[in-house]
Amino acid sequence: EDRLLPGMDAEGNLRFALGAAYDGGKAAELLGALGLGDVGGKAVRDYSGGMRRRLALARALLFPCDILLLDEPFTGLDPENRRRAAERVRRSGAGKIVFVVTHEASDAEALEAEIRKNAYKLMTRQSLAAAKAAGRMSEEPEEDAAADPAESED
Question: At what angle do helices 24-33 and 10-18 cross, to 10 degrees?
Answer without folding.
Answer: 130
